Known about the structure:
The structure holds two protein chains of two kinds.
Chain A: E1 4-8, E2 20-26, E3 29-36, H1 44-49, H2 53-61, H3 68-83, H4 89-117, H5 121-142, E4 151-152, E5 155-156, H6 162-188, H7 190-196, H8 204-209, H9 214-218, H10 226-229, H11 250-274, E6 291-299, E7 302-310, E8 316-322, H12 324-329, H13 332-336, H14 344-350, E9 363-365, E10 372-374, H15 377-390
Helix pairs in contact in A: 2-3, 4-5, 4-11, 4-14, 5-6, 6-11
Chain B: H1 2-14, E1 22-26, E2 29-33, H2 39-49, E3 54-62, E4 66-74, E5 80-88, E6 93-95, H3 105-115, E7 118-120
Parallel strand pairs in B: 2-5, 6-7
Antiparallel strand pairs in B: 1-2, 3-4, 4-5
Amino acid sequence: MAKMMIPLGPQxxxxxxxxxxxxxxxxxxxxxATVALGYNHRGMEKACESRTYIQDIYLLERICxxxxxxxxxxxxxxxxxxxxxxxxxxxxxxxTLIGELERVHSHLLWLGIAGxxxxxQTLFMFVWRDRELVMDLLERLTGNRVNYGMNTIGGVxxxxxxxxxxxxxxxxxxxEARTSYYIKVCTEEQSIIGRLAGVGKLPREDALRLGAVGxxxxxxxxxxxxxxxxxxxxxxxxxxxxxxxxxxxVLGRTVVRxxxxxxxxxxxxxxxxxxxxxxxxxxxxxKIPTGEAFSxxxxxxxxxxxxxxxxxxxxxxxxxxRAPTLANLASITNMIxxxxxxxxxxxxxxxxxxxxxxDRMIRVQDSRSGREDRYDWAxxxxxxxxxxKKRGVDLSQTKAAWxx
Amino acid sequence: MEQANAIVARLEERFxxxxxxxxxxxxxxxxxxxxxxxxxDILRYCNDELSFTQLCTITGLDNGEMFEFLYHISRxxxxxxxxxxxxxxxxxxxxxxxxxxxxxxFYELELEGLLGVEVEGLPDDRQYPLPDNWPKGQYPLRxxxxxxxxxxxxxxx
Lengths: 404, 157
């Protein structure tokens, strides 16, 4: 059969964000693949040069709706290094706490997407329901579900009190129990193992050669994590493990992420327990002295890099960003080539490319009457019970997995 | 600081022309301006002998007089060495580092697309990250390029 070239993207139901793949098919196998990017280019690096250092925090935080704290942290770290500022210890602990909660929400989001991509919708629904706990927690601590606005140059903008600390610990207990269950699902459930093992192979040598980062690299057996190798914030004082796996495939990437969530809970507990007292920020002049700095941050998707050069004014001369997905895209064609066409969506999803999620409530509008309804969790549950009851299925005695 | 000093000493021993140019910002950050002609030799030596096996990224910038290119390479112990080279703003050419760091393709395409420098030997001609129908000769990261609100939106390619 003749080889055939098919496009995947830039707009495609299997992709969560615009990127374009050209796949050369030999039957149902991928013989060759190329990727084209840039559909989301917003000119942010240029825009940074005409804004002040403070304005840039908010701009850069919006690079990504998921690892927003990662981008703003990496940027303020660079500016603080140029200005020679050491942030208060309490600020470092608070940044760490938000950073780890962000990792939890990001990895849970990913696990749901992975379930969706392989047709395991139950996993998707369960995980995303539980993820709401950490989203609510982030909202309680920072005022926002995403784009937390926590960082400023010289520290953080909000403190947390003992009530919030209690809430964090309470939510962590529930999340930990749920995550233990997902670990069981991802390591023992035969349909997951059968679907993911051997798919999207990236051998250790290729991962290193092509500069892969984050969970993708660690799932190929490389122990590299900026929180250990190039520690920032409070990480040098905390006890946690770097999770690696030798599967070097999508199953390995799944296993690494679910176990990393457990490490994040461990870190959050230590942070809350050992949180030092004191100020949460130091005052920094608007003008930053001439200099340059290179900063790294272990975002949920891997190493997030910011380089900043200053020129003595209140605006940077140059801000350069390298998000982790760009580093991982160099190896994506390797993972796809030789595999099946049907595996392409989950292989792409397995590097966890970024996309925005800001919707927060369910609002239903009746198209005939125009009446609007909002559902809370209990109301939504009741609605589904009633819906099934009308169709002859009684679920009213089913126990809810957790309550508000 | 010991590790950083040791790295600087070894590089100065191997490349005597570089002596005195290193700036050790802190124990894990070294910045070094090097001549463009010896860039590839230094990168190869750092990769083969000094364990700088990871290319973090390449930063291209326009300082108003020259283009600067910063090659950020790192090791497993967290040390990042930034090698800086300069080219003229008109007709500047830098060598492709893809033979040493295979994952560098997108970083180099970005230099070509946003600054308009030629990357010699880059085995790829994709347009990145600007759209395919972006006007020729417009390079947004150059300091003299200003966004123009008057410009009509680009038609679909």
